[in-house]
Amino acid sequence: MMAEMWITMGPQHPMTHGLWTLRVKVDGETVTDTEAELGYIHRGVEKICESRDFTQITPYCDRLCYVSAMTWAHSYIMAAEDLLEAEVPERAEYIRLMAAEIQRLASHLMWLGAFGPDIGNLTLMTWCLRDREMFLDLLQELGGSRMHYNFPRVGGVKRDIPIGWADRLRAKIKLFEHRIDEYEMLLDESTIWLVRLQGVGYATAEDQLNEGVTGPNIRAAGVNTDARWTNPYSVYDQVDWEPAVEKPTSVKGADCYDRYRVRMEEMRQSCRMILDAIEKIPGGSNTHYSPGDEMILTKAPTRAPEGATGTSTYECTRGVSQFYLQGGGDGRGKHPYRVSIRSPMFITIPYVAKTMIGYKVADIPAIMGSFDPCIGETDR
Amino acid sequence: MGTTITAKQNSKAASAAVSAVNDRFSDAGIVAEVIAHSAGKKYEFVRITCAPAQWRALAKWLASEAGVNYCGMITGTHFPEGPSERGWEVAVHLYRWPIANVAPHTCTIHVGEKLTGDDIPIEYEVFIPIEKTESPSVPSVQDIWGGADWNEKETWDLVGIDFEGHVNMHRVLNPHDSPDEFHPLQRQHKIRYHDFNEMYDDPQGFGRKPVDEGRVK
Fold first, then answer.
1. Which of A88, B28, B39, B94 could link B124 by a cystine bridge, Cβ 3.0 to 4.6 Å?
2. Residue A243 and residue A219: Cα distance in Å, rounded?
3. Does B64 map to a domain?
4. In this predicted model, what pLDDT tens digit does every residue of B157-216 receive, in sequence order?
């Protein structure tokens, strides 16, 4: 028996994927206790939003997480539309769906690319970043910027899809579907990958739900729960898809390998959804309506009265994100009185820290990485 | 087509949930009502208004009897200019989702349209108004839903609402050595550029001072 000691991993550590600190108590190589410390990049977004109007808030929500800016902006816009009672044209809903799903692909690729080096597979980083660029290019055509798009508006979207975008989208998605198979050939045949992921980081569905963990992490534990159908929004009921779900191999729930598998399947489902949506989009996939056209944007109120509230429950790439807005702020309701942001990772990171207890120190990067941490949205 | 919950299922589940709460708690002054969202699919959810003293009893009942298994978000708000019975408010967002552990090598595939009764997902919003006071407090539900743990820590850290019975309360987003009474989302604290237009007069910010300069921060 060795003496127990505390080791501080972070705020600068390859395992953390951002700025935070994991303090681990170790007995030899075994983790016996952990403590997560967050807040290193707290920017006070909720406070800043109280003095911005509803359109000005969108860029701040983009910057909650640079890896999935589009889904965060949409999550906010959904709450703002709930508060302001805005209608969204159907074409805009289809564009939003495609934008969010392309972002999901880009985000999962960034996760896989960062997770590979954690496990010792550097090839993966270069492959994933190569493919991610294809999708960032598509999003850039919509939003005008490579990462922070500021794309959705209350009542629609900023810009219509450009001419030719649909063809580029189809070609890239079809190429990428083959690339997913390539990734699986690289990873599922790799002994290192399997040995380091299988049998570590178990988490059951009920346990994760009670602790507030959602998204792909809970779907890996064998339940097809997904806010896209349990709390329906957008046009997910009109396109062809089914929630990705994985069969865990143990009564202890999903391990790191299951969480990797479920994200690969989720990328396939996103491809399927996008290909279907581009065929079904009202108004045609190769037409371009000018900004502000009623096909893509309807006029929405800009002020919300005191006492009005708006909430959104949105399936972000890392789990369910929620916004809660209260109307009646400064400027006779032009600003929200209170903006509250619920980030899935803020709840997940302390939970993951707890699940590491009992595993070896060398398993920490695998367990942490498999939950896809993002510190921008955690610290807000 | 993707699986989804239909408006009919949702509406049925929402009204059943509301009548269950009202049957059980109407004597205690807890009010539940069905509210519809005005965005997305305009689905209905359950809104409950409850006094701080009854919150724990309600939470226990929701978790054990009504099948609420997920605590999403806890939001504190400061209303210094509101009526005296609502100087603060805690809003809790809860969900009932059909999630259970599975046997090894199996999975549960729910088909939205075919779910019935308590399996239909439903959203709860609980408002807990707190009267005007220097030290607002509500009972903690940390032991009922694990997901409430860090949400309550955050609410205390940013808004300053205390959660009675919360174990291991500490700062999570603000620095650990922040002054004791400093909770930045309270309304007396202003950010430097409170009015967006002021930014244009002095883009570098040299001539500006925070509105609350000189006060304890």
1. B94
2. 8
3. yes
4. 999 999 999 999 999 999 888 888 889 898 888 776 555 555 555 655 666 666 666 666
Shortest Cα distance, chain B CAs vs residue A236, angstroms? 6
Tokens of A247: 């069969």
**Contact residues on chain B for A44, CB-CB shorter than 8 A:** 184, 191
Give yes or no for a contact between B78 and B159, defined as CB atoms under 8 angstroms apart.
yes
**Domain positions in chain A:** 56-345
Nearest residue, CB atoms, B39 vs list A82, A222, A380? A82
- For residues B126 and B203, membership in a common domain is answered with no
**B105/A229 Cβ within 8 A:** no
Rounded distance between C-alpha atoms, residue B24 and residue B19, angstroms: 8
Give the chain B residue nearest A237 (alpha carbons): B2
B169, with CB counted inside 10 A (0-12, 13-18, 19+), is middle
ipTM field: 0.88
Same domain, B152 and B73: yes
Contact check, Cβ <8 Å, A340/B73: yes
| pLDDT reported for residue B206 | 63
Of A141-150, A356-365, B140-149, B190-199, least confident by mean pLDDT is B190-199
What is the rounded CA–CA span in Å between residue B101 and residue B159? 36
Residue B215 is predicted with a pLDDT of 65
Closest residue to A232, CB basis, from B4, B103, B148: B4
Are A324 and B107 an interchain contact pair (Cβ–Cβ within 8 Å)?
Answer: no
What's the CATH code, domain A56-345?
A: 1.10.645.10
| Residue B2 placed within a domain | no
B184 to chain A, any CB pair closer than 8 A? The answer is yes
Task: Judge whether A19 and A36 are in contact, CB under 8 Å.
Answer: no
Residue B152, domain member (yes or no): yes
* Residues B109, B204 within the same domain: no
Of residues B5, B125, B172, nearest to A232 (C-beta): B5
Token pair 């028996």 in the structure block, residue: A1
Residues of A in contact with B156 (CB under 8 A): none
Domain assignment of residue B208, given as a range: 192-217
Instruction: Tell me the per-residue pLDDT of A265-300, one tens digit each, with 9 for 90 and over.
Output: 999 999 999 999 999 999 888 889 988 888 899 988
Percent of chain B with pLDDT over 90: 40
